[in-house]
Design brief:
Elements lengths: L4 E7 L3 H11 L3 E2 L3 E3 L4 E7 L4 E7 L7 H6 L4 E9 L2 H10 L11 E2 L5 E5 L8 E6 L1
Parallel strand pairs: 1-5, 6-9
Antiparallel strand pairs: 1-6, 2-4, 3-4, 4-5, 7-8, 8-9
This protein binds cobalt (II) ion.
C-alpha cells in the first residue's frame, strides 16, 4: 500500500540555523525558508535526491509542533511521510486493521498542497506517520 518515502520531518527551534548546518556541515542542497501559516510552521526543504528532509520551526501561537519542541528543545524527528495512490482506500484499510487516524479522519491539504492524513504514533512503533496522496 505505501509507496516511496516522501519526506522525513525534523522539528527544530531555529530553522535558519538548521538549514545552515545542513548546507555547510552536511553539504546538502537546502531551499529558502517558507512560511506556512495555515500549517503553523516555517519549513526549509532539504533535497537528498531520493527523498526530502523538511526542517520545521513553529510559526504562530497554535503551532502543531510547539508541544513536541517543548519536550525536545533541541529538536527531533517529528514524522515520516509515505506516499499512497489513494488516501481514502488507505485510510479505510488502516481503520479496518485497527490503526488510529488522527483528527476527524478526513484528509486535509498538507504542506505540499496534496491530501494528507496522520496516523497515531502508538500504532507505528512510536513514530508519527503521515500519508500523502501523490
Ligand atoms: Co510532513
Amino acid at each position: 500500500m505505501i509507496g516511496r518515502l516522501n519526506h522525513v520531518a525534523i522539528a527544530v527551534p531555529d530553522v535558519e540555523a538548521a538549514a545552515v548546518t545542513y548546507r555547510d556541515t552536511l553539504g546538502a542542497r537546502v531551499g529558502a525558508p517558507i512560511a506556512l501559516p495555515e500549517h503553523g510552521v516555517t519549513v526549509v526543504f532539504v533535497d537528498t535526491g531520493n527523498t526530502k528532509v523538511e526542517l520545521m520551526q513553529p510559526l504562530g501561537q497554535a503551532s502543531p509542533i510547539a508541544a513536541f519542541l517543548d519536550k525536545n528543545p533541541s529538536g527531533g524527528m517529528h514524522h515520516v511521510c509515505y506516499e499512497v495512490d489513494d488516501i481514502i482506500a488507505a485510510r479505510d484499510r488502516l481503520k479496518a486493521a485497527g490503526a488510529r487516524v488522527l483528527g476527524d479522519g478526513n484528509p486535509k491539504t498538507g504542506a505540499h498542497g496534496k491530501p494528507v492524513l496522520f496516523l497515531h504514533p502508538k500504532d507505528f512503533f512510536g513514530t508519527l506517520v503521515e500519508l500523502e496522496q501523490v
